[in-house]
What does this fold into?
Amino acid sequence: MTELQKTYMQMAINLSRSGMHSGNGGPFGCVIVKDGVIIGQGNNQVLSNNDPTAHAEVVAIREACKNLRTFQLEGCEIYTSCEPCPMCLGAIYWARPKQVFYANTRQQASEAGFDDDFIYHELPLPPQDRKIPMQHAPNDEALKVFSEWENFEDKKVY
Amino acid sequence: MTELQKTYMQMAINLSRSGMHSGNGGPFGCVIVKDGVIIGQGNNQVLSNNDPTAHAEVVAIREACKNLRTFQLEGCEIYTSCEPCPMCLGAIYWARPKQVFYANTRQQASEAGFDDDFIYHELPLPPQDRKIPMQHAPNDEALKVFSEWENFEDKKVY
It folds into this structure.
């Protein structure tokens, strides 16, 4: 990492600390940069917002996309104080940034009491073997809506 | 599934269709039920909101948690028109509902042009082997913030 990249990471770490001490949520922070400009940042806000999806990366991605007025983070770098959990990693794949830098690992998050590593182990399991019961209920009409999408004139791929 | 459960799934499918035709985003809908009451619902709003995290399940989870004033979906059932993508599955694990029912599969989503299956394959890979480059940058201070969390008096586990 360059000195400038280390500074962005330091900013993400500062957010992880200040957010936690403000009671917003867990100790996680994230900064998103495009062409040297910070376009989104966030800290975990699960507790203050009663929102289990308000992880630092999700908050920062939403802000960055709002600022860029697009649903894609093309050419962006994400600096996050901890390895993204599966939810945040999924969000990152949908946003398609250029690169991700992370400091703490999922194992260290686990030692600090978070479910990241547990969820990483659950995801590859067949739905019926997971801790949260998941039932496949095939439905012809649901599938028909997919066909409608495939033939949808105004379709915009994301 | 009971007849009532099939009705909830039908509602989720209706949301998948109406959201798509309104130009909100892809053909995905979700309904969340607690004790027979619908407490959250949503359709994909990636395009209308310029928000790559606004999948049907995430929208519905955020609404349900807002209504319940908690960051947990204890005792709730989630009905979704398609198997949750890794981001949404992660969100579901953080929200901890009782059960999930889904209609279309990730393979069918893939055939309709969505990245769900691709992301499921990427997640278990070591970070350095993924299509989006991810670099581990260990940082003593980031780890120190985790220690501060472990000793944080006002810590609320989520």
